[in-house]
């Protein structure tokens, strides 16, 4: 394990760790655009420059591995000046349309300009113009003028989905992201490119212009879309209820977990939250008597179920638990059934159609908690 020093702090890291990750471990953030821990190294944006003692000039941190005895400085005058110049270069042809950009508030051009840029622009020529609001597929919209050509989206499609829809076309300041002829960005994981795009070039067609991101709150959760259990963040909008037709859930985002989903989620899981705010969602108990359905209170519903369970012999009762339920709910159900002596309980209801599956994240079992139901002993025969 190489031992090195970053800004005077000594640290030991596993062999092969690059300087961006090594610096993170001592609480030092090295600004970067093209580096992403889930993708190959491109060394494209040149923003991650650091000074390494005995090196003649600043070096990119993403493509430099920690070496024993290395001494790294991330805030020298030379590094700061280099960063400022790189920022100015990235923004030379940028349209600076932040007020109408849906990425505003979570854009790394904005964030890094305020932290590391703050230069006076010297660009006086007409900027190069490129296509705006180009749909790349069902979920992703491209604004080519805002793109800094970091190639993260291209590498995602080449290395993660291996579908290769995206490329960088043309040369020099006319280079731009685009689709290969005859393709669209419609793979099962397509919207991850929105998450990894550091700027407002790729935005989410479902979310864009619904609500500004600074009004959102974030809650850690698990996707209920299949048995993979991808880690997610639920972004909710409670502060602007008059936006997005009052929907509380604004979007789902992947939450990195190397043991489950890496940095990614599938599109089906990402856009599967509509039921939460669906107007037809069942929110309170109702009672069916004869042909009529009437509202009931929870007390009435619980009393009615308890009354039926008291009247019927336990071996005549069968219960179907839901593998959509959390462990706590399944455990509470099991206790109720145990108290009543009911043993016929199961949860395996065959799906109407077999679920799709792949060799990456998506699982054929579309329930998030079949394993929990099984481990809690609710896997009996109710036939
Ligand atoms: S669209 Fe975004 S992710 Fe793709 S190259 Fe441009 S800036 Fe990078
Ligand atoms: S693979 Fe898709 S549906 Fe399954 S848990 Fe992950 S995001 Fe949800
Ligand atoms: S992050 Fe190192 S060159 Fe882009």
Account of the 3D structure:
The chain has 383 residues and is an alpha+beta fold. The chain has 4 domains: 3-90, Ubiquitin-like (UB roll) (Roll), CATH 3.10.20; 98-204, 2-Layer Sandwich (Alpha-Beta Plaits); 213-277, Single Sheet (N-terminal domain of TfIIb), CATH 2.20.25.90; 286-375, no CATH class. The chain is built from 9 helices and 17 strands. The chain has helices spanning 19-25, 77-90, 108-117, 152-160, 192-196, 267-270, 298-311, 327-340, 370-375, and strands at residues 3-6, 9-12, 49-52, 59-60, 71-73, 134-135, 140-142, 166-169, 176-179, 202-204, 217-222, 231-236, 249-254, 286-289, 292-295, 318-320, 344-346. Strands 2-1-5-3-4 form a 5-stranded mixed sheet, sandwiched between helices. The longest helix has 14 residues, at 77-90.
Per DSSP E runs of 2 or more residues, the count of β-strands stands at 17
Whole-number tally of structural domains: 4
User: What is the CATH architecture descriptor of the largest domain?
Assistant: 2-Layer Sandwich
Most strands sheet: 5 strands, mixed
Provide the succession of SSEs: EEHEEEHHEEHEEHEEEEHEEHEHEH
Distance linking N and C termini: 59 Å
Give the strand order of the largest sheet, numbering strands 1, 2, ... along the chain.
2-1-5-3-4
List each distinct ligand once.
iron/sulfur cluster, FE2/S2 (inorganic) cluster
Structural class: alpha+beta
Look at the structure and give the CATH class of the largest domain: Alpha Beta
Percentage of β-strand residues: 15-25%
Radius of gyration: 27 Å
